[in-house]
Design a protein that fits this description.
Length: 512
């Protein structure tokens, strides 16, 4: 199929044609057209202040801004973790990182990594999701949904017991291993397609890319840009949906994470002209990233390219008449990064928030979150409801009529089988009086040895066992540690940590 090139920062286009979705006859009997379709667009390392609708002044995001203007913008939504794999695991499992199996970017390797060569990455992939605990696509599949995931998987390495083909997913295209997703012109991507008769995950070699070196000047001659390829597969899948069966699409785009590179088109040229005094990233010995010219232009263009993808998705839904019965959610897996020359300070990417990716401060975990559902969600609404990624599972279950999911899908042999989320469906549908609230939110992250707790407007960050307390109502930037002034609050929040932390053989944090 000919690639649909992006030609401008606000352009929208949609693929047309294609056959009806490939489904099993037995599964087709589960079709319930009255159930809402759901698309969750999850981008990578997009900060709370990276979008115009959240106050960004330098980067154009007209399509995402339209989502917010026609839907609901959340101001206090949180990722599951300050880094990718555990954040996605929290969303998938309905568990916070004191309970779920995946609490960090633990990877499995089959050999030594060698930079500067054209060898395939030898990393196998991330730790698998717990096969004894249900994940969200399995619930959607059991409720008659056709399921597609496009982008990062990060829930189990190739050949493990937790790959897309084994976890309720009909169609997958993207990166099984998120380590490889640091580069946008890889040697291969992965696919699982029931339509094409796959019996498991397969590798799809990117033949043109392989002809050129993975590092150095020749890398620029690679043309198979993974973000575009993944997006086109997502659009192909979406175009095949005919409304006879509900669908769940999880579009886990890698933009704007990691290396600052993309096709040399009008989006990039626009920002190169705009940022006249841009800087370069020289790279460094042993780095996985190639040197980059025009760091600010490249980064801004990546977000605008992502925005263009969102516009194409929305245009496709509208043209097919599916938009009225489709809930579209947009968010990011954690806060902004500084890898590959990225410069969050220049863009004010943490907004008014302290902290970056890998930190349990607000800037590492508070994320943009937008919900769009015509005639269901009030246009132009702003919600201050406090929620986290582990609330996604109960929210979807309520919306699709699977209210008893804990009893139905919990593992009776695992006691307790934790489900930590609270549905925010009432907030989406405008029934704020029926909306239940969290007593607290909880995060922990081994790599930086941090624990985070939010209780009302109180926020505690524990670093290497030492607690720091902040009042978000008066100190959103978390500058003034007032732990000594509120010992009773400190004791209460420390008791939350003790009650919520379940020991893990793979991920350790220092308890206070």
């Amino acid at each position: 199929m000919k690639r649909n090139k992006v030609i401008g920062y606000a352009s929208v286009a949609c693929l047309v044609g294609g056959s009806l979705s490939c489904t099993d006859k037995a599964d087709a009997t589960l079709a319930e057209s009255q159930k809402p379709n759901i698309i969750f667009i999850l981008c990578d390392d997009l900060g709370y202040g990276d979008l115009a609708c959240y106050g960004q002044k330098y980067i154009h995001t007209p399509n995402i801004d339209r989502l917010a203007a026609e839907g609901m913008l959340f101001t206090q939504a949180y990722a599951g973790s300050p880094v990718s794999a555990p954040s996605r695991a929290s969303l998938m499992t309905g568990q916070h990182t004191g309970h779920c199996k995946i609490r960090g970017n633990k990877e499995y390797w089959s050999g030594e990594m060698q930079y500067g060569t054209n060898r395939e990455f030898t990393v196998t992939g991330q730790m698998p999701y717990d096969t004894a605990h249900v994940i969200l696509p399995e619930i959607m599949k059991a409720n008659g949904y056709t399921t597609g995931v496009f982008g990062k998987w990060a829930g189990g390495y190739e050949g493990s017991a937790s790959t897309p083909d084994k976890r309720g997913i009909d169609e997958f295209f993207g990166y099984i291993c998120q380590f490889q997703a640091h580069l946008y012109y890889p040697n291969f991507l992965n696919r699982y397609s029931k339509c094409q008769g796959d019996t498991g995950v397969v590798r799809v070699p990117l033949e043109q890319n392989i002809q050129h070196a993975m590092y150095g000047e020749d890398y620029r001659n690679r043309t198979q840009y993974s973000a575009d390829l993944i997006h086109q597969k997502a659009l192909e899948w979406l175009e095949k949906q005919d409304g006879s069966r509900p669908f769940y699409g999880f579009f886990t785009y890698t933009l704007p994470h990691a290396e600052l590179v993309q096709p040399n088109d009008s989006i990039v040229h626009y920002y190169i002209k705009r940022f006249q005094n841009d800087k370069a990233y020289p790279g460094s010995e042993g780095s996985r990233y190639n040197p980059v010219m025009h760091v600010h232009a490249q980064f801004a263009a990546m977000i605008t390219r992502l925005d263009t993808y969102v516009g194409e998705i929305m245009r496709c839904l509208e043209e097919k008449g599916l938009d009225k019965n489709t809930l579209v959610l947009f968010s990011s897996d954690n806060g902004p990064h500084e890898e590959g020359g990225a410069d969050p300070a220049f863009f004010g990417r943490d907004g008014k928030l302290r902290g970056l990716k890998r930190q349990c401060y607000e800037g590492g975990i508070r994320v943009p979150f937008i919900a769009h559902w015509p005639e269901k969600i009030k246009s132009g609404s702003i919600s201050h409801h406090i929620c986290a990624f582990y609330d996604i599972m109960p929210t979807f279950c309520e919306l699709i009529g699977e209210a008893d999911y804990v009893r139905k899908y919990g593992n009776p042999n695992q006691t307790p089988d934790y489900f930590d989320g609270i549905s925010f469906a009432p907030t989406l549908l405008g029934d704020t009086l029926a909306q239940k609230q969290h007593d607290f939110l909880y995060w922990e992250f081994e790599e930086t040895d941090q624990i985070g707790v939010r209780m009302g407007n109180w926020k505690m960050v524990v670093k290497k066992g030492v607690p720091f307390l902040y009042d978000l109502e008066t100190d959103l930037h978390e500058d003034k540690n007032i732990a000594s002034e509120h010992p009773d609050v400190v004791r209460e929040m420390l008791s939350i940590i003790v009650s919520q932390h379940v020991e893990s053989p793979d991920f350790k944090v220092t308890l206070p």
